[in-house]
Every structure is written in structure tokens, then in C-alpha cells.
Amino acid sequence: MSIRVGIMGYGNLGRGIECAIKQNPDMELKAVFTRRDPKTVTVLTDNVAVYSVGDILKFKDEIDVLMLCGGSATDLPTQTVEYAQYFNVVDSFDTHAKIPEHFENVNNAAKKGGKVAIISCGWDPGMFSLNRLYAAAVLPNGKDYTFWGKGVSQGHSDAIRRIEGVLDAKQYTIPLESALNAVRSGSNPELTARQKHLRECFVVAEENADKQRIEQEIKTMPNYFADYDTIVHFISKEELLREHSGIAHGGFVIRSGKTGWNNENNHIIEYSLKLDSNPEFTSSVLVACARAAVRFSNEGESGCKTMFDIPPAYLSALTAEQLRKNLL
Amino acid sequence: MSIRVGIMGYGNLGRGIECAIKQNPDMELKAVFTRRDPKTVTVLTDNVAVYSVGDILKFKDEIDVLMLCGGSATDLPTQTVEYAQYFNVVDSFDTHAKIPEHFENVNNAAKKGGKVAIISCGWDPGMFSLNRLYAAAVLPNGKDYTFWGKGVSQGHSDAIRRIEGVLDAKQYTIPLESALNAVRSGSNPELTARQKHLRECFVVAEENADKQRIEQEIKTMPNYFADYDTIVHFISKEELLREHSGIAHGGFVIRSGKTGWNNENNHIIEYSLKLDSNPEFTSSVLVACARAAVRFSNEGESGCKTMFDIPPAYLSALTAEQLRKNLL
Q1: How distant, in Å, are the alpha carbons of B4, B85, B290, B294, B306 from that of B88?
Q2: Is residue A130 within 8 Å of residue B315, measured between CB atoms?
Q3: pLDDT tens by residue, A203-248
Q4: List of chain B residues whose C-beta atoms are within 8 Å of the C-beta of residue A102
Q5: Contact assignment for B328 to A308 by CB distance below 8 Å
Q6: pTM to 2 decimals?
Q7: How many Cβ contacts (< 8 angstroms) between chains A and B?
Q8: Ramachandran quadrant class, A52 (left: phi over 0; alpha: psi -120 to 50; beta: rest)
Q9: What is the ipTM of this complex?
Q10: pLDDT at residue B1 above 90?
């Protein structure tokens, strides 16, 4: 019997999950829930209906796992806690600093409901986190480095948009080849923020805006830009739409570590992603985690988990025998 | 209390495990067992004794996990089965085709003894297998490619040594940059063995040996060389020792896969290792797996497992809270 999946929220991530379900024959999209008027939302899958979020509890026995596709800032901190009482859930909560708090809240709710919640799935947190963990466990005497990009950072783009006189903006985070190569050399360099990433901004300004001031405000913005080399381009609304609507992203997790009685040997573990679509890749990770959530639940477990707690085999549709025979 | 580790077999792998234990403060080397005369074996760690393999059962209650450091051809198929009855064990069994059979045999023994056995740990099988599994689970509509090298293949070196007139030999497996780049482009190429790897051989021949015949025998050897482009160099015994005693290795696991309603987006997941010491890196993976074996055992589990069955957190000395806070 297939795994019956519900999608809560039909934006880029929700649509990505719908596409990923199509690629996984052991899964079936059961229903999509939205805060909008359901009549205004059309999904891609035949014979799947869109419901108002208010109707979701009627589906308690018809959905094996609910995919929470809201944002980390305001949606997930309440949504995941709310729905983990009634459904096995998967989310992509990605505010790293608040993960311990989110975990506690979701864990309490899921335990109360006897459900399984897997939080912070995706690629960072997610696949990148796994690679940091595996590499650190194998090479305890080492140092790891995470690089992001090239890709658009939503947070940095938003920060630029809040500046007076800015109509729209996109900010690319670009890993510096010199830093990547220094890390790959095994020299375990200490790298400043500026040495690791470059920030390139494409900004649409109001007609009579003071571009010099805007550029200055961007480049000196604390936390976001002040610690980086930042390039600012002013372009037209049309060019922004035409050239900078991409959703590609990616990055690198590299660990360099020593082994040997006198630490005489060096090793480099490198994991990298080059993604045409950030939301679709994230969704694909979430769908693999959905399979694990259902399996945990079928085994009688409850509470909150992360990808750190999932035996890798639980993510796969293949049996343990098939995995050992074909992939080990 | 630290995890008390025993080492069975003190070659490159056993020594590597001893070095790895030194880097893991939650572990302690308890004893080394050898088939040689224990008096002839000296270990690096202070106050650790070497015992004859015949004495091992006396340590049933003093060792939490026994690391089996024999070879896959003849040692492990019997050793792991034998000792899994009495100890939690970890091995690096790497004959891919025989893993299912080895798993069954070890599973029966470990279940009988109420112990946990983790087999086929290392990097391939091991970290590479994990990356094949994760990438396939996340991108089911894709194709994966494993490249090895540059590094010495023991099996291919041995095959050359069996040729008449050959005194010694080392064979390097070298991944072809053209193939790596074709895979990274996302074109999902069909690659022949010849297109993926080059084989370079350094051969010490007997004084009056017919080098042309030896070269011909190497290049046409079925399974090992016939399907590859092979370069053969004849060198002196001294040069082989001086220039080709390295134990570096590494490789790449790359998966390229599509997402999107019409498979319109491509993604590349790449994992690579660049290892100064193949046996020390392998040992480091085994030691992380030892931690998981003890944890499974403490939870009351028994039977055979592989890295596919280990929740990543079990490999780490950090607590679940620390992992979520620092690595997720």
C-alpha cells in the first residue's frame, strides 16, 4: 500500500513535493491544504483536491504523513507544533540557531499525539548537516568548512529590499575559489567571512533614488554585508526579472583531518551540491524523510527526530536486502 | 565509562585502529590479539598487552567491541562469524558480491550470541555506499557513478605478481578527468570501463624475463586489464620501493538526477575522498562504527547490521543535543 501524503502550503516547496511524489512509486499525493481560497489553487496531479486548512483534521485517518511547506520565520514554529499532535509530519525548519527550541516544542507535541515529526530536513540543514556529522565522526582531529553558492540568499535579498529607494533586489552568495582551494590543500586555514564568500547584489532602485547612498547602505549593513566584499549592480526591473529569477543553488561541505600516531596523514572529505532548483531539491529530501517518518511510526515510535536519527536505509524505497546487494 | 576496544590482527588496519582510538577520548584500547607469537608484536599504546588469538575468550567480559582486521578473502568470512558469537564486532569485509552471504552468516552467529555485528565498514563499502544510498533516495530519477583513485589496487597488483617473470608490481587505478567532467555536466553519459578509469602498472621483472610478453599478458588479462587502457612501466626493485610504497587512495561518488514535473531541473551530488592513508581512513570509519555497535548492544539489539542501518548520530561521541545545536 502506498504512503498517503498530504501537503500543507502550496508554494515552491509544496509544488516541489508534488513533483517528487510523482517520482516515487511507493507514494501517493492524497490532498493539498491551503490558507488561500482552495478554489484559487490548482495542482498538477490529476484527481487530487485542494482543501482549506480548516478542514485538515477530517483527514486524520487518510494521511500517513503531512508535509509542512511554510516558512521558518513565522509559519513552522507554530504549524509543526500544531500538526504534530495529529499527523506524522516533516518540515524544513532552517533557522539554525532556533533548532533546539523548535525540536523541544515539536517533540512535546508529537509525543502527546503519539506521532513522529522529522524537522529541519533539506540540504542545509539536512544533507550538509549529515556530511558535517559523518566527517566529524570519522575524522575527529579535523576541521570542517561549509560554503554556500553560487545561489540566491533570500535573507540577504530581503535585507536589501528594506533599504529606502530600493524596489527589488537579488543577492548571490558566491564561494571564493581561493578559499575552497586552501581548504582542499589540507592546510586547515582560518578563514574570515570575507575570505570565504563574495556577495553580489542586483538592485532595482526607484527612479530618482540616491544610488550612491543605497550602495553604501548595503555595503556597510552589519551582519549581512559589512564583513564581506560586496559588489552592487543597479539594473532595471525587466533585467532583474529576465536574468535573476533563477532558483539554482548549491555549496560545499569539506572536512580536512589528520590520522596516524603523530597525525602524519591528511584526508579530505568533500561533499558538494549543484542544484538547478533549490526548492525542488529540498522537496526531494523531504519526501525521502517522509518515508522514514512513516516507517518510524509503523514501528510504534513517537516524538521529534532529525536526519541525524534516521538509519539511512529508512529513506529508501528499496528493501534492506536490495540495498546490501546493489548499493553497499 | 570508556568503550573498551579489542583489536584482532595487527597489520595496517589494526595499527590504524590503534591510532584512531587515540583520537577518540571515549574509547580505550584494551588488548590486541594476534595469530603470530605475541612476543614478536609491539604496539604503540603504553600499557596495552598483545595476546595470542587462542586466549581471546578470556576477554569476553572485558571488551565491549572487537575490531576484526583480517582480509576479506580468507580471514573475515570465518573470523567475523566465529567472534560475533562472543563479542560485538566490526569488520571491513569488502568483497561486494559476497556481502549478502556474509551478512546472513554473521547475522545468525550474532543473533545466537546476543551480540551486534557491523560488517563492511570503511569507505567502499562504507562511506561511498552511504552516499550512493542517500543520493538515490533523494534523486530517484537519476544515475550514479563511482570512480576510484588515484590509488593502488591490491587486487590488480596481486594479479600482475602472479605472471611468470614478475618479481613485484604496483597498479594504480586512475579516474579519467574526461569522464568525471562528463558526469558533472549532468549529461548522464553511458561510460565503458575504459572511459572511466586508466590502469597504470609499475612492474619489477626478473633479470632475463621477456618484458614484451609480460606487458602483453598484463594488457590482455580478462576482467583485470583487458577492458581498460593500461600503461606498463618496468622499473627496478629499488625504485618500486622508493616511489610506489604509498598508501594514498580516494575516489568519487557522483549522482546526477532530474526533478520537476517534466524532469526539467538537474542536480549534481558529488562526494569525494582524498586520502593520504587508505588503511588509516578505513580504520577511522571502523572506530566510529564501533561506537554504534556498542550503543545498539546497550539498547538490547542483536544481529548483523551495516552502515545503512546506523542512525548517523550513533557514530558520534557527541550527544543528540550537541549534534542538533552544533552540526545541524
Answers
A1: 11, 8, 8, 7, 13
A2: no
A3: 999 999 999 999 999 999 998 999 999 999 999 999 999 999 989 9
A4: none
A5: yes
A6: 0.96
A7: 211
A8: beta
A9: 0.96
A10: no
